[in-house]
Amino acid sequence: MEPSLAISLAAAAALALLTLWPRRGLLARWRRARRLAERVIVEDALKHIHARELRGTLATPESLAGKLDVGVRRALQLISDIQGRGLIQSTGPGLRLSPEGRKLALRVIRAHRLLERYLVDELRMPLEAIHATADRREHTMTVEEVDALEAQLGYPQQDPHGDPIPTSAGTLETVEATALSDWPIGMPAKIVHLEDEPPEVMTLIVGAGLALGMQIEVRESDEQRLALWDGESERELARLAASNVFVSELPHPVQPPARLSSLKPGEAGRIIALRCEGLNRRRLLDLGLTPGTLVECAFPGPAGEPRAYRVRGALIALRREQGDEIEIEPFTVSVEGSQ
Questions:
Q1: CATH classification code of 178-249
Q2: Topology of domain 26-97, per CATH?
Q3: pTM higher than 0.70 for the full model?
């Protein structure tokens, strides 16, 4: 056999092996990528329809096309495909999920919100950066992996934005709240939800120092901005961003933010925000002191400080100046053992 022919045959065999190798070949990888792409667009469509149902305005082919960044013709094809699978129902006013479609949508939402909790609590990612990462990973997780992640995180009830996390049984609590842009001037409120899209608006909210659990009052409002009072200082927020902050009524006037250092042994609180930057913030996050975490003051040191705090089942020691940098929502009773 001619050397050149032998080389050509060997190259052809190698190319065939590279392409057709089961599970690892190019063809197998292409098929997996195609299946994942189809899964992503279907699940994203179900999430959009679910979100519109919750808001009371049903999804339409046009709204779906805008959400998925595709043409209306492609959206109509997708609707026909999903409807053929029995996941949605097309009505006069718009699109509704079938029971099976709602089950699948909640499964993806559950994965997304647990992933966001993980990215904040375990990887210490900034709040404005977690949504896109969770969006990419939510479609690749199995039900078993999601359940394991929930157990690892200690069965959290809310994601870092205040959204309730669906249970493994497929139930989802509702949160009654009003956009801050529509909130009356002078009425005390508590922040219960931060909308995470678009990320540019989320950056404005974080930059204004607003966080879940914070008590605020609208002092002034015009077409461009809102002046807010947090019981200690005044903050400004663009009206555009205020429409992504949701609040509920407080039964009392706005109170100054409580600090972790104010807790006495046996008292507890939930972290609202860390008011420090740089290395100090990094150290506190590495100790597990992330927003939303429950912390209990265990006992003081021999000279009064550092104090011991129970966080996620572990004891840590903090000096008073460190505790002063941590805003909390205090509890009136001890929650020892509830971590």
A1: 2.30.30.90
A2: Arc Repressor Mutant, subunit A (1.10.10)
A3: yes
The CATH superfamily of 258-330 is: Ferrous iron transport protein A (FeoA) (2.30.30.90)
Are the C-beta atoms of 261 and 206 separated by less than 8 Å? no
Q: What is the tens place of the pLDDT at every residue in 180-222?
A: 999 999 999 999 999 988 889 999 999 999 999 999 999 999 9
Six-digit token pair at 158?
Answer: 């809310």
Q: What is the model's pLDDT at position 337?
A: 41
**Residues 137-158 pLDDT 10s:** 999 999 999 999 999 988 999 9
Nearest to 178 by CA among 165, 168, 193: 193
**Do the domains 258-330 and 26-97 match in fold?**
no
